[in-house]
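User: Hi! I'm a student and our assignment asks us to look at how structure tokens line up with a sequence. Could you show me two examples?

Assistant: Happy to help. In each example below, the sequence comes first and the structure tokens follow. Example one:
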Amino acid sequence: MNDEDPAALLALRDSFAALGAADPDSWALSEISEGIPQLARFLALRRVWPELIDSWAAPGALENIPAAARLLAHGADRHDLAQLARVAAYEAVFGLLYNLTAAGRDSEAPDVSPGWRLMETTASGELTGRAVRHLHEDLLTMDPSGRDGRDLWDRQ
């Protein structure tokens, strides 16, 4: 435990635990000891898998896409199509998170071009001054299956 502010560490750990973090102690310790806005990072990522990646395996998800519905009607394996959609969603999310929170600028734009940064806010929307960076680095660890995305590329 961090000797600097054990009460803050415990409160933050409890917040992570209440939100369903797999390792609330590590998230909280990192935020307190390294000054990384881990709670903001966790909140930004926690719904990505269920809402943007795993939702493609839900009943009816593929049937709502005309091309997928045609493939299913012609005998395509539903599991294979769902896996394809999940991998495509993962890759799109990873790329977007990388571009938004790691690069912070268009590498092909002139040097005088503006960049961007995702920032943490208070509950009331005021900037804290802490950048939310490198979200792509934790995307696999947020897989609710606990398999860190391994099932996306598993052959069955």
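Example two works the same way, sequence first and then tokens:
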Amino acid sequence: MSEFKMFQKLIYNDVGISLADHKRTLVQSRLRKWIREFGLSSYEELYEKIASDKSGQMLMLLVNAITTNVTSFFREENQWIYMQEHLNEMFDVKNRRIRIWSAACSSGQEPYSIIIFLKEHLKNFDEWDIKILATDISEEILKKAINGVYTKKDVENMPKNILLKHFNSIKDSNGISTFVVKDEIKKYIIFRVFNLVTGDFSMFKNYFNIVFCRNVMIYFDRPTQNQLLEQFAKLLNKKSLLFIGHSESIHKKDYTYKLVAPSIYKLN
């Protein structure tokens, strides 16, 4: 088995990510740096180091190295517009209960965007029972999300009034500003490590009003995508929504879901 095939099999079996053959050069270049840092002599030695690490930390480092944690606040503009236009019909006005899952939250911009959006647009916001579950496979990236500290570049596209209302601005000794999400926003979000391929979905006892799973399935092959969509279907009802990335789609032969707007689906 070639060196690349070994890493392909490891990452697919343990995480579900399908590494295409054309990613060989990219993976080799990123792992070559590790070989130098760890004082190893070959890719085989690096593979053994990752595979034998019982803590799973090395595997998560590998995941971070081969995936792209690119995200931003209020990404996928059309989805926020849809939410604003359909806000009154999306949630249970009688019980005033909202449950949303940010299923690959990365460094936190997505779940923070969700609660800020609701705070800005939901009538009588303080009267609602709202919880946002934010999960990611990487414990390291979740630490950044929990801290909620962002650079000026991270928030450059956010309207100034929204930024001032929901973030604290802090300057370091060099006069460089960082922006910290206020505690009154953070309190609605629960951050957890969760693997969308091997995780136990039975731990979720209730329906979600919305599941955000954006720019994740692009890393999975079709069987793994179908498996994940089946799991999501168990956690949605007829009024629930599934938001995916604009470059993703649900196969036309999957009659479980129906398209209601670009990259937005409901159960059929």
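Here is something you could point out in your write-up. The chain has a mean pLDDT of 87.
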